[in-house]
Design a protein that fits this description.
It catalyses: ATP + protein L-histidine = ADP + protein N-phospho-L-histidine. It is found in: Cell membrane. Its EC number is 2.7.13.3. It is built from seven helices and ten strands. With about 280 residues, the protein is α+β, with helices and mostly antiparallel strands. The chain has a five-stranded mixed β-sheet, covered by helices on one side. Strands 3-5-10 form a three-stranded antiparallel β-sheet. Strands 1-2 form a two-stranded antiparallel sheet. Strand 6 and strand 7 form a beta hairpin. The chain binds adenosine-5'-diphosphate (ADP). Adenosine-5'-diphosphate binds next to helix 4 and helix 7.
């Protein structure tokens, strides 16, 4: 049993009797503590790259550095600026998700199209991530046949799938495999999955992965350009689409992130050549 926080007030009637009013403020205090944590986290996440940037600016202003070193400093500054940009984009994405109405069942997104966009993005990201370390990842995608459609906001679904795929690539060493899957089940539901051959995640962390700014390994997440908000965004988008996220992981051999959409959110693609198809 968890402790309950009560706010107690005593009102004298004036005739010796008193009224005792007790309110349960547990939830309110928890929400307030979460908000404080969030603001502290955001401030910290922004302060770190800003401090680094300010330091580099000062160095460049005060020291006459050789051209090569100057360029290296400028590249590091660009990296910090881009980190802040990503963080602000992710914060905005989260707040937009919280403020917007649930996507209805009237807008349909082609799974083949979603996967094609994911594939283009993944190949580009893999090249960027592995530039200094050698071969890009081996990336596998399902053949785009009739994969059906999902009801929901295509931009949101795209961002959820992309975030999972970006994590798989960022946490998997160069040259190793990342596989994307789309399985339709007998009960009409379907599962999107991203399997990586990265370090895997200890079971104790699994339940907390989708919390804002929760990271298993802080320095590693930063090195790979992580904001700590990716899975929080994924969780939000999936909740809004009635989908569920499952993570299976084996330390030392890799992880599988699977997203299952209920049958009510899925339909077969309209036949090719359908004049009403968008
Ligand atoms: P980040 O931007 O730090 O990657 P996320 O919310 O996307 O933030 O992920 C939270 C944490 O979960 C990461 O910091 C990392 O420790 C862990 N994680 C996510 N995806 C993977 C993965 N595919 N393999 C290993 N660890 C992962």
């Amino acid at each position: 049993s968890r402790p309950v926080r009560l706010s107690v007030q005593l009102y004298p009637y004036g005739d010796g009797r008193r009224l005792l009013l007790a309110r349960d403020v547990t939830a309110q205090e928890q929400a307030e503590a979460m908000r404080r944590d969030f603001v502290a986290n955001v401030s910290h996440e922004i302060r770190t790259p800003l401090t680094v940037l300010a330091g580099f600016v000062e160095t460049l202003q005060t020291l006459q550095l050789p051209e090569e070193e100057r360029s290296r400093y400028l590249a590091l500054m660009a990296q910090q600026a881009s980190r802040m940009q990503h963080l602000v984009e992710d914060l905005l994405a989260l707040s937009r998700l919280e403020g917007s109405p649930l996507p209805g069942l009237t807008q349909w997104t082609s799974v083949a199209l979603l996967l094609r966009q994911c594939e283009d993005e993944a190949r580009g990201l893999s090249v960027a991530l592995t530039r200094q370390q050698g071969r890009p990842h081996l990336i596998e995608f399902p053949q785009a046949q009739d994969l059906g459609e999902i009801a929901g906001a295509s931009m949101e679904l795209q961002s959820a799938f992309s975030n999972l795929l970006a994590n798989a690539l960022r946490y998997t060493p160069a040259g190793k495999q990342v596989s994307v899957g789309w399985q339709q089940h007998a009960d009409g539901s379907a599962t999107f999955s991203v399997q990586d051959t990265g370090p895997g995640i200890e079971p104790t962390h699994l339940a907390r992965l989708t919390e804002r700014f929760y990271r298993v390994d802080r320095s590693r997440s930063r090195d790979t350009g992580g904001t700590g908000l990716g899975l929080a965004i994924v969780k939000h988008v999936l909740q809004r689409h009635g989908a569920t996220l499952e993570v299976r992981s084996t330390v030392g051999s890799g992880s599988v992130f699977s997203v299952t959409f209920p049958a009510v959110r899925l339909r077969r693609s309209p036949a090719s050549g359908d004049v009403n198809a968008p």
